[in-house]
Amino acid sequence: MSHVLVLVLIVVMINLGFWQVRRLEERRDLNTLQAERTAAAVVATEGLVADIAAGGVEAVEYRVVEVTGRYLLDDEVAVRNRTLGGLPGVWLLTPLVPAEGPAVVVNRGWVPQSSSDPAGRPPAPVPDGEVTVRGHVRLSEQRAGLGVADPAGGRLTTLARPDIERHAAQLDYPVHPFYLQMTSQDPPPGDYPVMVALPAPGDGPHLGYAVQWFIFTAIAVVGYPLVLRHVSRRPDRAAFPDDEMDPVSGEVS
User: Fold this and answer.
1) How far apart are CA 240 and CA 234, in angstroms?
2) Which residues make Cβ contacts (< 8 Å) with residue 189, sequence separation at least 6?
3) Rounded CA gap, 109 and 194, in Å?
4) Of 182, 161, 195, which is closest to residue 78 (Cα–Cα)?
5) CB count, 10 Å around CB of 157?
6) pTM given for the model
7) Which of 13, 53, 160, 209 is found 20 to 30 A from 224 (Cα to Cα)?
8) Per-residue pLDDT tens digits for 172-185
């Protein structure tokens, strides 16, 4: 029975190791994609329509977009539980309405917050009149797994995640199905909000995890036969030739 258990563990650990290798490859592919798209020419939101129609919103993620319009501060929502430098806070998602075409939701950035009360965070006003915003296209997020669910109805002032579909449901004008993670604004913002950078490229922990699983596999492959050999040479094993002995514990049954 112990042989089967060890064999199953070895197969599981090998598969976990290769799974982490695949995750590493996916992470590196994402880093390459992000670098290529952020280096592409800046476009207006209208310049993304054809690509979205052909390949979905995923086809334009990380593209750099520039749009001019007016913020509608009354329609702003805050994304809860966002940290910066270890401090708790929120992201501010504010619709920006151009002269023509759908509005685009802009992640203006992070503001600190010590409580769930909006009055507990510093003011983050928007400029009067038109502003020109440049930022990266980011995908709307939906609830996954055991994540907190936002109410489906009513007018919300906060969201658990940047769910543009839910945000748009309480607006009376069309909105693009993505949001912009702002990198610059003209005129520039004040002290708050603090603009949020894209996730830094890197390999993450996947290589280290893969190495760990392969080391555990090697220990099992090399160590288990040594245990069996040790048990088979124990003096008490020879004293009970007709009894069954567990090869791991060495106990006679």
Assistant:
1) 11
2) 108, 109, 124, 195
3) 5
4) 161
5) 9
6) 0.73
7) 209
8) 999 999 999 999 99
With tokens 């983050």, the residue in question is 124
Q: How far apart are CA 179 and CA 194, in angstroms?
A: 17
Q: What is the mean pLDDT of residues 220-228?
A: 80
The span from the CA of 237 to the CA of 155, in Å, is 75
Averaged pLDDT, 217-238: 75
What is the rounded distance in angstroms from the CA atom of residue 142 to the CA atom of residue 140? 7
Integer Cα distance of 109 and 36 in angstroms: 24
CA 117 to chain centre: 26
- Number of other residues whose CB lies within 10 A of the CB of residue 199: 10
Q: Each residue of 78-107: pLDDT tens digit?
A: 999 999 988 999 999 999 999 998 999 999
Q: 3-state DSSP: the chain helix, strand, coil percent, rounded to 5?
A: 35, 25, 40
Q: Residue 180's closest CA among 126, 131, 137?
A: 137
Contact 4, 193 (CB under 8 A): no
Q: Determine whether 176 is exposed, middle or buried from the number of CB atoms within 10 Å of its CB (0-12, 13-18, 19+).
A: buried
Could you tell me if 164 and 175 are in contact, meaning their C-beta atoms sit under 8 angstroms apart?
yes
Alpha-carbon distance 36 to 22, whole Å? Answer: 21
Alpha-carbon gap, residue 21 to 209, rounded angstroms: 9
* Segment 160-169 mean pLDDT: 95
Give CA angle at 211 (209, 213), nearest 5°.
70
Half-sphere exposure of 218 (CA within 13 A, CB side): 7
Give the tens place of pLDDT for each residue, 29-41.
Answer: 878 888 888 888 8
Q: Give how far the C-alpha of residue 77 lies from the chain's centroid of Cα atoms, to the nearest Å.
A: 20
Q: Could you give the count of Cα atoms lying within 13 Å of 86 in the half-sphere of its Cβ?
A: 0
